[in-house]
């Protein structure tokens, strides 16, 4: 999906979500406390979390990445230890408004470096050695997945208190094995502009408090740059959650560059299914354990 398509879908989503929320509020005012629209943004190819959310105070970061490291004077400061890639500047106003949560160290045990297999694990919410055919959203009977806006119109025509619109968007180009600096900067700029546009449109339509946005990516990248000024497939990464009821801030575990795995990947501190449990709770989708196959503690990100 290119930049223009992303921005177009973001704006159209905000408009249709407003109409749906209005209809649901009229018919079922008691359901107004939960999230009604969920936007899942897949960063396809494996986003480099280390250059997305940067440990600027750790000297090992620059030692591992003599060419790819983002200098402290270019990075966007979040706190004394952490900064964002400069291409994410459209999200700084979201951060300052406390509408952006950044979860570091997200992944799963025994990470698989295959794009296909790791996407399958994320889609099914399964263990690395478990094979399932059904996606985690398939187990939520009350979720309506919206991929076209005709579909959104149909949902508006049949409002129900238990229905949540789910929009899946995919941004491509994150598999940065070579010449990463330019390619990754362009991908992150596209992401930031799209998310900022979605937020602005949702605020204008009055739906931001009922909207939750979450990024996903099959894995992060290796901590050490390669000979082609890129990075290989890694393990844990950082992910974003946005919304009018999000508690902004840093969550999870900062990258431990002294505890890389055997293939140079960042250690996992937050199981990715805790993000799903957080989303399911926010959308009032019953017992997340029955959907995810086990109990995963939600993160304290979304205000109820």
Automatic annotation (TrEMBL):
UniProt-listed Pfam families: DUF1501
Recorded superkingdom: Bacteria
Descriptive protein name: DUF1501 domain-containing protein
Species whose genome carries this gene: Caballeronia jiangsuensis
